[in-house]
Structure formats: C-alpha cells, structure tokens
Amino acid sequence: MKKNWNLPDLKTARIRTKENTLIEHSLFEIPEEARNMGSGKKYFLRTYGCQANERDGETIAGILEEMGYTATPTWEDADVVLMNTCAVREGAEQKVFGEVGQMKHIKKARPDMIIAVCGCMAQEEAVVNRIITTYRQVDLVFGTHNIYRLPKLLYETYRTKKRTIEVFSKQGEVIENLPARRVGTHKAYVNIMYGCDKFCTYCIVPYTRGKERSRLKEDIMQEVNELIKDGYKEITLLGQNVNAYGKDLGYADGFANLLEEVAKTGIPRLRFVTSHPWDFTQSMIDVIAKYPNIMKYIHLPVQAGSDEVLRRMGRRYTIAEYKELFDRIKKAIPDCAFTSDIIVGFPNETEEQFQKTLEIVDYCKYDLAYTFIYSKRAGTPAALMEDTVDRSVKEEHLQQLIARVAKYANEKNQSYVGKTEWVLVDGPSKKNSDVYSGYTETQHLVNFRIKEGTKAGDLVQVKILEAKSFTLDGEQI
Ligand code: 5AD
Ligand code: SF4
To answer: Using 50, 70 and 90 to split pLDDT, how confident is the model at 1?
Structure first.
C-alpha cells in the first residue's frame, strides 16, 4: 500500500540557501469540518526540553483549544495524547519511547484515542522509522515546522483511521497568527527567532529546528504589547541564539535594538535566552547596562574549557575570547549573574582538556551551570568522530564538574544572605501554602513567607535569611 507520508530527512534539513524566509501571516486555519472536532473531548500534552519547545507546547494547546478540546492532566482519560519531544540528548529520547511504550495497553482498550508524537524527535529519520516499525500505537507524527497544520492533520487521522506522518525538513517559514494557550499568567515567552545556523558539531538543533529565521520586529512588538495589556510582568525573548536576531532580515544591530525597544515598553522584567558567546556585541552589553528593567542575568554557554575541544565542537571562540567577553560584561554590569551549559566527554576529550573545563568554572564562578555528558546524535559531524574514552571516565568527570559548579552556586547563594531582593511571586509552594516561591532579578529561586494579601504576579521585596545549595529562604518585608 502506498502511503501518503512526508518523512523527515536530516540531509535536507542541513541545507541552508540564501533564499529569503517567507513570513506567513495567514497560513494557519482550522478547516470548517475540523472546527468542532474537539467539542466534549480532552487532550493531554507533555512537553520535554527547552523553552522553545515549551513555547511550541503553548501553541499546540492554543490550536487544540480553538478546536474545542479541553486539557486533562492525565493521559489515561485523554482523547488525544501529544508528546512534544526533545532530541538534544539520547536520555530524553529513551524516556519518550518508554512512555509511548506504556500507552500500548490503553490504546488497545480505547482504539479511538489518538497518540501523537511531535517536537524535535519527529524531525529525526531514525526515530520516525522506529515509530513506524515498533510503536504501532502512534497514530500521528508531525514535525516542528508542521505545527500550524495540526487541525488538518488531526482531522485526517480521524477521518482515514490511518497513520498520518507529516514532517517537513526543508528550511521552514515564519508562521504568524497562531493561537497560544499560555502556561503562565504573569511570565511569558516570546519567540523572536527560530532555528539555528551555528552547527556546533555535537548538536542536532540546526537540523530539527531548521534555518535561522527572525520574526519581524513589528510582529514581536505586537505580541509584547498584548502581553503587557494582559497584565504580564515578565517577558523572556527566545531564540537558540538571540544575538543573531534580525541578521536574516538585514537589520543592523538587530538584537540590541529589539531589546531596547522592548525595554522601553516599561515591562517590569525583561529577559532573554540563549546568547552564543561568539556574536555577543558591545551594543547588546550597553543596552543591558542601561535599562533597569532588563534583568542582569546572562546565560552564556561555554560548553568546554579547552581550545582544542572548542575548535572540534565548532564553537567559534577560544577560551581567551570567552574570558575577554565575560570580563567586559562584568565590568559594564558588575552585579550581573551568569549561567552556563557545559558538556563533558566530548569525543576523545583528554584528562588535561577536562581540567581546563574545571578551570573556566573556577574563573567564571557561575551562579549555576547545566552540565551534560556528551550524547552522540546521528547525523551530526561529532557522531563520526573517534571516541576511545570510557563511559566510566565521563561519568567521573561529570561528578567532579557537578561538585565544582555546586560549590560556586552555593557561594553565590550565601552572598545573598542578609540582603533584600526584588522577587516576582510565582505562587504558593506545593508543600506549604504559607511559603511562596519566586525568582530574584538575577534568576535565583527564593522560598519565602509572604505578607497577607500577596499573590502570584506581585513584585515584592524579600529579605534573604538563609541559603541552601540551590535555593534561598527569606521573608517578605
Ligand atoms: N550532548 C550533550 N549535550 C548537548 N547539548 C546539545 N547537544 C548535546 C549533545 N549532543 C547541550 C549543550 C546545549 C544544551 C542546550 O544542551 O550544552 O547548550
Ligand atoms: Fe546547538 Fe550550537 Fe545552535 Fe546552540 S548554538 S542550538 S549548541 S548548534
């Protein structure tokens, strides 16, 4: 039987042409026949991975709710189950396969239930092939570039009662005017660009999320202004590498200018992630320093401490250049907090090279760093590199690195004791409803006793009384 499937292809996903990206304002539609499809029905959505995926999850939820579906927190009673997946490391993928495996029985009992796999894993050939052969309970697979087609795809899956697979691998457009069901009521993510053209040799993201493409400034500002009107207090501008914002549109100093324009709206808190150390400009530093509502917190992934490893990772900077940037930001913004991503066990990383990673952690004394063991991703250049390092060595390095990172995180937290910090209240903690939690301007998590009447979304002053390894305790003053 000939299948009308559109399967992923990593080779096509790697291609970058000079063609301008299409910015589509009216591609999204819910066909007449699909309009009330979800009425009386429930969806369960689980999202893994980074903020980009979380934001995609909000779009998926928004689309489903426009089709009449309502959310349920458990997949057992859902009519549609969606797994919005992450492909950045193998561990995250195994978890999804485990969960989809468990759904087999319930699908047998309830054959009308639709199980969908989307997100970054859907963009990988090997994953989709494995689903086709081994995970027959999956009814629908759609890629990161296909979200806007969800109403049609879901309708087709119902109508034909056959598997639907639609994954576009070529470049990708910018699709505007998609609905969103936001998770937060006072903090929101705003995409400013999609994709990545950096092609670090270990990373699958440039393949699963496609070409770097920016949203028009006016579309971003419209979303920002709507959020402010709806009472949002904090906006985080999102991109795999926000520094590259606007380059594809021919904007000069694109990110610095955008950041400044958003800061000028007066939104109480403005954040951004992620910045690549390679194209972090002086004008960005100047803007961050100038506006008090731009939070003094920069996620600046270093990935490794050895120049040779950085070169083989394709990171485009040396440690001397990274330090120079770090020092320059610190000088301009003395109270700035820094976090990082660090990989250990890159193919053939030597003991000496790993020691250099510990050295850069000692140098930067990060407020926090996310640490990972290198995970081989099929289709990336690093997957072809020889690697003779034992897994046990990599695990030992990870433990050493975690301990070193924790030491500085703890020191940083200790330095807050006795100080008073502005905290944006997230809400009561799960264990004790008298204790609320929220983040400082520098993105440190605080648990604190509130004064009567304080509620989620308030900006309050909290005196820090005690520091734990990764959190602070305090009381509202
Ligand atoms: N293996 C381990 N970690 C990875 N990351 C990206 N790709 C890989 C990989 N193949 C990490 C990087 C990146 C973060 C989001 O995930 O540190 O900054
Ligand atoms: Fe991956 Fe590098 Fe792009 Fe980050 S900058 S998404 S690590 S390729």
So the answer is: very low
- Asked if residue 195 lies in contact with residue 207, where contact means CB atoms within 8 angstroms, the answer is no
Q: Is 332 exposed, middle or buried (0-12, 13-18, 19+ CB in 10 A)?
A: middle
Best of 50, 120, 196 for a ligand 2 pocket test (most atoms within 8 Å of beta carbon): 196
Q: Minimum-distance ligand to the CA of 300?
A: 1
Residue entry with tokens 């990060």: 366
Length of the chain: 477
Ligand 1 centre distance from Cα of residue 88 (Å): 6
Ligand 1 centroid–CA 468 distance in Å is 27
Question: Which of 317, 275, 322, 276 lies closest to 294 in space, CA to CA?
Answer: 275
240 C-alpha vs ligand 2 centroid, how far in Å?
7
Distance CA 62, CA 147 (A): 11
Single out the residue of 251, 254, 252 nearest to residue 272, CA to CA.
254
What's the pLDDT at 2?
A: 52
DSSP secondary structure string, 53-103?
A: HHHHHHHHHHHHHHTT-EE-S-GGG-SEEEEEE--SSHHHHHHHHHHHHHH
- Which residue owns the Cα nearest ligand 2 atom 4? 240
CB 395 within 8 A of CB 373: yes
Other CB atoms within 10 Å distance of the CB of residue 436: 24
- Left (φ > 0), alpha (ψ -120 to 50) or beta: where does 177 sit? left
Tell me what the pLDDT averaged over the chain comes to.
96
Q: Which of 151, 119, 127, 97 is nearest to 52 (CA)?
A: 119
Contacts of 389 by beta carbon, 8 Å cutoff, 6+ apart: 345, 347, 348, 349
Q: Classify each residue of 110-145 as buried b or exposed e, where b means 16 or more C-beta atoms within 10 Å of its C-beta.
A: eeebbbbbbbbbbbbbebbeebbeebebbbbbbbbb
Distances (CA, A) of 8 to 65, 120, 128, 165, 188: 28, 11, 8, 9, 31
Sequence-ordered list of residues with C-beta below 8 angstroms from that of 52, at least 6 positions apart, any chain: 191, 194, 209, 238, 239, 240
357 alpha carbon, closest ligand = 1
Atom number in ligand 2 closest to CA 341: 7
pLDDT tens column, 267-293: 999 999 999 999 999 999 999 999 999
Q: Which residues are CB-contacts of 391 (< 8 A; sequence separation ≥ 6)?
A: none
* Whole-number Å distance between alpha carbons of 430 and 236: 25
Model's pTM, two decimal places? 0.96
Q: In angstroms, what is the span from residue 61 Cα to ligand 2's centroid?
A: 26
